[in-house]
Amino acid sequence: MPRDTLNAGRSCDAPPRRAASTVIWVICALAMIAIAALDPRPLHAQDRAGGGMGSGNGMTLAPLPGASGSASDDSMPPPMAKMHIMQPVSASMMVAPPYGTSPLQVGFFVLADDPEGIGFLTYSWNFGDGTVSSLPPELYIYHTYHTPGTYLCSLVIKTVDGRAMTLMQGVTVAPAAD
């Protein structure tokens, strides 16, 4: 019977030694997965509390190369400072009346809130009939539509720090009754 040169002194029918070490490695890996599934804490917490990889069960984790193992190691950068994400502007706009005959005077009622408390810089109106305005913020603003048609009024509210919101309302103007 011919002999395997990698396994000198063994017959070819015997499994090679490399296969045995691979099986042992797979068994160890499966054991580590099973331990992690039973105890969801990170491995370093398991080692401190017992029952984990370093609890005398023969399976310990080697430290990472270059790691000192100290929890108060100054080689790590400090944690990132808390970030403040600006809250969006909230606003609503109503129109009264939304339809009628020409000439139609319409009142736009706007409620706007800046949750950051910084305040509003501009109100930019486009009434949809070619008229624009940058009047300061008021509770009500009036506009008269003279020509029959359907119009889309838009208002862009912008805060001092650049946050903006666009509001839109439709207005329908019918021809005057004869």
SSE pattern, N- to C-terminal = HHEEEEEEEE
How would you characterize the largest beta sheet? 5 strands, mixed
Low-confidence stretches are 51-55
CATH topology of the largest domain: Immunoglobulin-like
Given the structure, what is the number of helices? Answer: 2
- First CA to last CA: what distance? 117 Å
Q: Let me know the CATH homologous superfamily of the largest domain.
A: Immunoglobulins
User: Can you count the beta strands?
Assistant: 8
Helix content: 10-25%
Question: Would you kindly provide a written description of the structure presented here, covering whatever features stand out?
Answer:
With 178 residues, the chain is an alpha+beta fold. The protein has two domains: 61 residues, no CATH class; 85 residues, Immunoglobulin-like. Helices cover 16% and strands 32% of the residues. The protein is built from two helices and eight strands. The strands form two sheets. A five-stranded mixed beta sheet has the order 2-8-7-4-5, with no helix packed on it. The chain is elongated. About 3% of the residues have low confidence.
Give me the secondary-structure topology:
Layout: H1 17-38, H2 43-49, E1 90-96, E2 99-101, E3 104-113, E4 120-126, E5 132-133, E6 140-145, E7 149-159, E8 164-174
Parallel strand pairs: 2-8
Antiparallel strand pairs: 1-3, 3-6, 4-5, 4-7, 7-8
Features:
178 residues, 2 domains, three-stranded antiparallel β-sheet, 16% helix, elongated
